Sequence to fold (207 residues):
Amino acid sequence: MSRNLGNAGVVGETYNGSQGNSLNYGNIIIAENEKQSPWAPLSVQKGFKAGDSVISIFSGLGIHAGQGARRGGIALKPAFDRQFASILETFTGYFGALIVCDPLVALDLKAQGYDTKEKLSEWLHKNTPITVSDYKNGSFVAAYDAPRAQKGIEPYASRFKLPPAAKIPRFAHPQDIVIVVTGGETKAVFQAGNLKYVTSVAVDPWR
Fold:
């Protein structure tokens, strides 16, 4: 909005981007495909009733589009969980992770044993570690996590007491990794964003 409505997007002067991005024009809007998803929708996870019209808001650093599955060989099944983990290892921990997957991906993961989103989030939380040294040198840690550690708030207080080479979860809590299902079941792909869940709001009371 500052670029386009506030006249702050003069190319070559106040805007020096070299490539186009949908965020130059508006925020990312994702409609979850609740009907084809094998899991509960995000709104139900956040305490709303099934069928309620709900908007969930995220903030963060953007989204990586067009990801496929990692394979161990031609004869092996796709390993979406391991591919998720490899991408999340590039994310800063302060902003959580939002994984947006086609229903085909969700169905494959459910068949693999992740019968709820929570199980997949817990697995990803455990399998995307970071060293304490890298964690302390990461973006936003000094501004946000260090003050929490000084106040004794967990898990930040314990993290700051560990040796530099110790490994800790990249994200503070499994709930920081949010999964939604969207897509038309034409291709088993997903996207992942370094985005932090903020809140959910029911739409129906506005009508």
